Amino acid sequence: MTRHRTKILCTIGPASEHPKTIRAMLRGGMDGARLNFSHGSRQWHASVYNRLRDLSTETNSPLCILQDLQGIKIRITDVESPFRLNRGEVVRVAPGTERTSHQCIVIDYPHLLKDLKRGDRILIDDGLITLVVRDKGAGGLRAVVKEGGIISSRKGVNLPDSRVSLSPFTDKDREDLEFGLSLGVDYVALSFVRSHREVKALKEWMAGRGHQLPVIAKIERPEAVSDIDRILDLSEGIMVARGDLGVEMPPEEVPLIQKELIIKANSRGRLVITATQMLESMKEHTRPTRAEVTDVANAVLDGSDVLMLSAETSAGRYPVQAVKMMQRIISATEKRPAVRENLFRHNMLQKRDDMSFAVADAAVRAAEDIRASYIVALTESGYTAMLISKLRPSVPVIAFTPEERVLRVMRLFWGVSPFMMERKAHWDEMVSEVVELMRQRGLIRRTETLVIVGGDPPGMGMTNIMKIIRAGV
Description:
Elements: E1 7-11, H1 19-28, E2 32-36, H2 42-58, E3 64-68, E4 83-85, E5 90-95, E6 105-107, H3 112-115, E7 121-124, E8 129-136, E9 141-147, E10 149-151, E11 157-158, H4 171-183, E12 187-190, H5 196-207, E13 215-219, H6 222-226, H7 228-234, E14 237-241, H8 242-248, H9 254-267, E15 271-275, H10 290-302, E16 306-309, H11 311-314, H12 319-335, H13 337-345, H14 355-369, E17 374-378, H15 383-390, E18 397-401, H16 404-409, E19 416-420, H17 427-440, E20 449-454, E21 465-470
Helix pairs in contact: 1-2, 1-12, 5-7, 10-12
């Protein structure tokens, strides 16, 4: 059973790749692992993927694995030795692969001259350095330094005022995703999404290869915020990627954008992951700042399904402590009586004119009215469990599925504890099997009440039945 309803997704990297560390993170509360394909070789990712699967089986802890594609990653080229740009300087900026120097800032983006115009900003190193384009010629741009700083090798570049020509689903991403699909990843995250068309293109590419992986659209650009409704229509979820979003947009707008995105995703029944710098100080320290603790708690209160740790677990000194701290903050937030009233009674999912919603909604209401011990979702696709999760019941939710892939996908559903069961031909057989499995796991006693939801006949693809039973009666 899950100890926390808001789930924890951890980025795996050099700091957390060791089996001992992964075991400790699983025990500490990790529900999902993120493989960041912006870093590391495919050989390394394959090795880590297999290790995660083996340790998940060894510890009997179902684990979801998300492949995060790199997308368009624009950087300055290598610098022979770091140098300072001072405010007011005029510098030359050009596309290419040559070394960057004080004489010319070289950016590894071939469409730089085409995409930028006079007045556009060039942000370097997460926006710490700001250049503004003054004019451009055949070979490059002239830009004035508005915010200075130290230029060093391979720093990231953002172009917040420009319409980037390249698709965020790059040739590298296609090759990486082909590789990820061969491994068996559970989700794919598409970076730097600008519109719903890019999500559609990714899904069509996968469908052409016989795959239907759930897609998480990373919201990192203002265009994506503007097109969020159609992005939510096509994706299975979004990631509120506050790092690049805070560079591309005014930072003071990000907190309210975060809340608005979470509300929209929840109302549409889509997964929502809140990410970036949640416990950033734990890269170097064993304790977070009070502001970071408040940030995590607020993300829980906003209604996030999942909170993600990035550098804290991939490159930080204390990956296990970061997971445990995240789990502690989530659990403490969810247990407060006043918070429970707000968090569990707030129906986030907008009403739908379909049978599955009506049955799921009735099950949640009935379970709370009779104070049932559990709501049990019997599901082959995970859809029933997601509906119930988005209705945010106060009653614990258990989901049973015969599909191992669906089991892992549901590991990121808010409040859902997923388990495997054998496929049965009849509803009554499924109910009997579920009660027996719960009894074997010590989850129920003979007198406990369950509200069971699913489809009859099993596998029909629709939630159309709810049953209230007393275990053992």
